[in-house]
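pasting for ref
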Amino acid sequence: MTVTALSFDPAKKHVAPRDGSGEMFDRIAERYDLINRIVSLGMDRSWRRRTVAELDVDSTSEVLDVATGTADLALKVAKIAHARVTGVDPSSGMLEIGRRKVRASGLQERVKLLLGTAEELPFADRTFDAACMAFGIRNVADRPRGLGELCRVVKPGGRVCILELSEPRGGLLAPLAQLHVHTVVPWLGSVLSGAHEYRYLQRSIAAFPTPAKFASMLEEAGFHAHTPLPLTFGVAHLYVGTRAA
């Protein structure tokens, strides 16, 4: 999720949404969950459960879910940990689907969803006991600022858990995983969505910092970074940080 930057295409005479912006995700919102299930072979569900476990929260906790999208992770936190969750995302289309899911789950008292961006979180300092983000940090244009905002709104000692796709770089199965990321994901996503946006997915994964580099970014933002946790042969990583005093 990001502050939207728009560019003008004189040939088409309209404003085109920037890759990774809220407007881009508005265009694929209706099929976003289905595509995620298929391109991850259903593994994204177990990754989210691991994320909730690492948050270390309970029914007394207030949790922030940034880049909440259709609220998959927010709902997992509410269902598994019974915490209260505030989800923030810049895509009104994704949030509308998320609100439908919240109502269908009967969790309106525990989950609320707001329009907003990672770089300008509309909350006071030290508001939340923990924060999380799934598949959203790649889309934050100013990552240091977004991480700084997470640190600002989390209480000292609170955890931040960031789940993100990554490009496998080692191991016997790395070539197959790279084929999946570079070829299968953008092709299948494009076919199912009827749009070109999932080519962006592959490019953004390849451009994302290495796990060690991103852990350093967490440290620079004010967190004590734990060792990054590779998931499913390194197709995704879970980054955990504890907010310094």
